Amino acid sequence: xxxxxxxxxxxxxxxxxxxxxxxxxxxxxxxxxxxxxxxxxxxxxxxxxxxxxxxxxxxxxxxxxxxxxxxxxxxxxxxxxxxxxxxxxxxxxxxxxxxxxxxxxxxxxxxxxxxxxxxxxxxxxxxxxxxxxxxxxxxxxxxxxxxxxxxxxxxxxxxxxxxxxxxxxxxxxxxxxxxxxxxxxxxxxxxxxxxxxxxxxxxxxxxxxxxxxxxxxxxxxxxxxxxxxxxxxxxxxxxxxxxxxxxxxxxxxxxxxxxxxxxxxxxxxxxxxxxxxxxxxxxxxxxxxxxxxxxxxxxxxxxxxxxxxxxxxxxxxxxxxxxxxxxxxx
Length: 330
Hints:
single chain, alpha/beta, Rossmann fold, Hypothetical protein af1432, 2 domains, five-stranded parallel beta sheet, 14 helices
């Protein structure tokens, strides 16, 4: 079954022509789909934003918001961008197809719509939406697991979400691609997910770890990589998970990587990670001020711990946008 509980799926049909809209909706209902039929673009957008929809069939030439406009608006929202959209059009020009592709349309149907072609497209795209939902669900499970691990220690509450936001802010100033920013967002949340394999007596020990305990703790990066490895959408997150405890001088773990050997996204996350750790309360000390934290990070950088270019970028970002790493509204 699909996530919304309907066996076949929920289809939204938007067309201002009742003579086209109603037969189309009835055909889909006879095939077992739940159908939401609306007569304009504004209604279509509201319905898509207010309830689960597995596929939208949008007439291109509707009064008010056109199918192009609705498609563009739906694809711009993170919550709805993965909903497949088919533009139904009587326009046959190449320019109109290009407009649809630029708006984010997944497919096109020409009027008059042929029954067999319609049903084939609908079945294919609803099946694709099902696979997408499964990937989304897997990501949600991983993020929930990561937050549950974090919740065991009251001093790390909110750390994952802050790190997710902060790394994206730094990544944006560095000009990273959209794909890299997504990896940083995900990595900020799940970077320590491997701690699920660390015994609580080690994970929550208030004092320094002995050599045996430290060895156990250092395995959490490898465990985290293994947990997330089956999810192909996380392939660019794996280097962040495995390598965010490496150090520039090769004294980090688990692989003793040095400088440029450490993946760039992992270096970004570790830079922000140490800053957040220093500026939040810990059992053994109060949170440091922004100025003190940056000074300490520079001292550690000169000793060979962190990437000096990224520390400089972090410091510049904090000076230009003091609220970039604020907990207000978090």
